Amino acid sequence: MIIKAISVHQPWASMIAQGSKNIETRTWYTDYRGDLLICSTLSPDLPGFKCGFALCVVNLKNCRPMALHDEAGARCEFFEYQKLFAWVLTDLREIVAFRVRGHQRIFDVEVEVED
Asked: Range of 14's domain?
């Protein structure tokens, strides 16, 4: 099965996987909606964090211009991100972490589906 994925730097990738970050900020808009595999980038290699792994699956519910009320969900301060897009992430699903080679933008990952 092919799933759409995105690379996120640590520690933010782990925050998404733990449910404490439900808005991802990006400089670009996407029309894509649906399941999204959250992958941690390989670098920087932060001690105590899984780098270069698929960590969880979320539903990318919406993509809209960042607003002041997005600060808490994005784990950032709005003044730094006024020209960014808020990717609204819902329906967090845990997975068994596995190695992934990340890419820029949204990319495809082939995953094995267990019966």
From this structure: 2-110
